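Good morning,

Both structures are done.
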Amino acid sequence: MFGADASVFAAVFVALYAAHEVGDHWAQRSAEALGKGSAGWRGRWLCARHVAALAGVKAAAVTLAAAVLALPVSPWAVAAALAVDAVSHYWADRRTTLLRLAERVGKGEFARLGDGAVAPAGTGAYALDQSWHIGWLFITALIACMGAN
């Protein structure tokens, strides 16, 4: 169950990281980026739609890497890993959740740095959001490697 080759982990992580960058920035629709943190069902729907598309991009990237590199990953482990990643991504992208966590751990001031309307990618909230996602990609890659031959 444990003890997957480190190169398998590295390849899966790189595939997930590349897919995250493409899916979170290029594949995400403007309406999702602007509305996924909104209160109510519309915000929840936009966030869920974004996360579903992002999970698809990540699944495609891991599948392609596994096929081209002959990675011995279990489809079930990859599916479970992507589900964990999707939940963590949705939780953070609802925005108030991540801001509350930032406040609790003393990062609230940093989270409020910058003007999200002018430069959303240059804010403290964006930096915390992306670091959250990348940290979960690490965990996702570890889960995806469970059961590798």
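Second structure follows.
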Amino acid sequence: MATDDYNYEFFNVTFPVEWVAHVEINRPEKMNAFKEVMWLNISSIFKRLSHDPAVRAVILTGAGDRAFTAGLDVQAASEGILSDKPDGVDGARKANGIRRHIVEFQDCITNIEKCEKPVIAVLHGISFGLALDMSLACDIRLSTSDTRFSVKEVDIGLAADIGTLSRLPRAVGNQSWVKEVALSARIFGSEEALRVGLVSGVYKDKKEAVAEGLKLASLIASKSPVAVLGTKEILNYSRDKTIADGLNYTAIWNAAMLQTQDVKDAMLSGLQRRTPKFAKL
């Protein structure tokens, strides 16, 4: 089992079943809205989980019943990066500082996507703005029947800049729908999210959705960690490449990764009708 010293402010990290980590955003009194320390902490958590040999799958949820996350803590941001207080810095230098800040926050969310272990997001309640940035960096998205989604950024005067505008078109494959929701910031529900392919499952309530997420994470974690790592890596690489590029990368990857005891153990377990046990990665 993984170590239990994942102590990060505004997050609970637990290990409810073997090989599975549960990351819970824990600021329910503010509907799990993000301020700066939370971006940095979620980045650190997923970098650690990526290399933790006792973790093979991760589930990401939000604490409380009201929201997965309401997105950016606008009040905190207005006192920080979005502050309009005069500072005597010229436009170019101020722009470069803002650019560095945006890139840092982009990297924080991209570290969820870079995590070697599959990540399942369970969205519920209010899931605005950053909720989409984060969940689109995850591998699998589940939601509840009452989830309310919104690409909310135009309502606070900016273009979404942490990943949604880059990842959402690839996730759903419908440019007209993507532009509609991104330009209007309208709220949409889980049935629509399921129809366009944003989520792969909708469940009655948070309890049921989290249970299903843990069940799926446990199933994934029961597979060869070498095979799971390779599958995620190849899918992510191939998403933005030609088929020929993807096939070539797959051949090179598996030239190394087929040289594992996991293949023999998995094949023999099928023939012998037993549950395979795989070494840590």
